[in-house]
Design brief:
alpha/beta; 21 strands; globular; five-stranded mixed beta sheet; 11 helices; about 25% helix; about 475 residues
């Protein structure tokens, strides 16, 4: 029966190599939920370069978060796994009798990890260090301003290729010269009966001047279907959608609209709580384009190294971290990412990259390109081990914690998943029977339920490896 199906598919789609169309792949492509879908797939044995299976491997499709593989691999190759961001606290003017007659400056260098919940240190540890540094300098009062220099990446903030409906949500934050607390806040809601309006309990951290319109209602759906809508630098934010009914407290996450200004104000308040008064404004370079004259260094905060940042991106599918690395590469380092990989020998004509996270539906890449990237990082890169270890283990970690969990491949693959509307992708490495394989699968415009498609993909992978 499988032979008959294979011949039928060869006739319809023009496939010519049965060796590249094993029965598991033939069976997968015949699924009803792929009737109208576009699929790009390839899997190879890394030791022999033998193709295990392939289909439309050269077709560029929207990859969702599989684009993070390109971003993280490029960052490791350009900056190295030991690279750390350094964010200095500076001042100008002079200090007399415990008073600073000048400004404090926080110089943004693109660090996405300040106060991040993914850091091994406490959320406000960097603020304590800065506060202590101000004290060590003998400052108890600041006559000037606290200015965050946030201009490093300009003020576009969000990619023009992102969807309008994503603006304001935590997974689509504005990216500027500095970030704080993952550029994210949480609104805690209380819900009662189905279809009733929820109540706002509190916002953490409190976002200065935020004007929130809450339209979220309670639902019998047990998932979080609440979304924010608001533009960068805007105080107005709309919260709509649904959350589960009868919850005493339920958190939904939004994007801080102006991270630099938020940090300036938050640090001002932190200093005042610790006995250091300020008379000037808490502001940013965007609002007050002043740079220090005769600057003096008070303290420098160093991030975790790039290997840790890359692991957070790939295991947690962290869009914010990925977008900061993309800005670092394309703005600060002036890297043309497709051209970078072309010089490494990859056919990057298949790569259409408009962001670092894969959040844009305009992004596109082929399974062939991702396989070539995986092969390069495995066989040629000095960062091979770091890149490999950055990928989540199926059945255990991050976004693939439940994928392949109840199969023979549980714990035997490191795969980056990707999912946005009508897109599902998995790319990475599989280890089984003493062999390591590279695999990439991108699906666009499937029908039916996503969890059913994932079960079909599990069946495909178990049949291939």
């Amino acid at each position: 029966m499988k032979k008959i199906l294979l011949f039928a598919l060869v006739f319809i789609y023009g496939w010519t190599s049965e060796a590249q169309m094993p029965p598991a792949l033939v069976n997968f492509l015949s699924k009803k939920n792929l009737t109208h879908a576009s699929v790009s797939f390839k899997a190879i044995d890394l030791s022999t370069k033998k193709i295990i299976g392939s289909y439309n491997e050269n077709r560029s499709l929207t990859p969702a978060s599989n684009m993070k593989l390109v971003t993280t691999a490029t960052a490791l190759e350009v900056r190295g796994s030991r690279f750390r961001f350094e964010t200095p606290l500076l001042y100008d003017g002079f200090i007399r009798e415990a008073v600073l007659y000048g400004n404090l400056y926080i110089k943004g260098t693109g660090d996405p990890t300040l106060g991040s919940e993914f850091n091994p240190t406490g959320k406000e540890d960097f603020l304590k260090e800065w506060s202590d540094a101000v004290r060590r300098a003998g400052i108890r009062k600041i006559v000037g301003n606290i200015i965050v220099l946030d201009q490093l990446f300009g003020y576009e903030g969000i990619s023009p290729k992102w969807l309008w409906e994503d603006a304001g949500n935590y997974y689509a934050p504005g990216i500027y010269g500095i970030g704080i607390f993952d550029n994210m806040y949480r609104v805690y809601l209380q819900s009662s009966s189905v279809d009733s309006l929820t109540a706002v309990l509190y916002i953490e951290p409190p976002v200065y001047d935020l004007q929130l319109t809450n339209e979220v209602r309670a639902s019998d759906d047990t998932t979080d279907n609440a979304y924010f809508f608001g533009l960068p630098f805007a105080d107005e934010m709309r919260l709509y959608g649904t959350i589960p009914a009868h919850r005493s407290s339920f958190a939904v996450k939004g994007a801080i609209p102006d991270p630099g200004l938020f940090l300036a104000r938050y640090f001002r308040d932190y200093l005042q709580k610790n006995g250091i008064t300020t008379e000037g404004k808490a502001t940013t370079y965007r609002l007050n384009p002043v740079t220090p004259t005769g600057e003096k260094l008070l303290s420098t905060i160093r991030s975790v190294d790039l290997s840790s940042i890359v692991k957070t991106i790939n295991v947690r599918s962290n869009n914010q971290y990925a977008e900061y690395l993309y800005k670092l590469l394309t703005v600060l380092d002036s890297i043309d990412i497709p051209e970078f990989w072309r010089k490494k020998g990859l056919d990057s004509d298949a790569l259409f990259m408009y962001d670092g996270s894969g959040n844009s539906p305009a992004d596109a890449v082929s399974a062939e390109f991702l396989i070539d990237l995986l092969v390069y990082m495995n066989n040629q890169s000095e960062n091979s081990a770091v890149f490999y270890q950055s990928l989540p283990v199926v059945g255990r970690d991050g976004t693939v914690a439940s994928f392949l969990k109840n199969t023979s491949l549980n714990g035997k693959a490191r795969l980056k998943s990707g999912s946005i509307s009508n897109v599902q992708s998995y790319s990475g490495y599989v280890e089984n029977n003493g062999k390591r394989y590279a695999v990439s699968l991108i699906i666009n415009n499937f029908t039916g339920k996503r969890n059913e498609l994932r079960k079909d993909i599990e069946q495909l992978f178990n049949g291939l490896f």
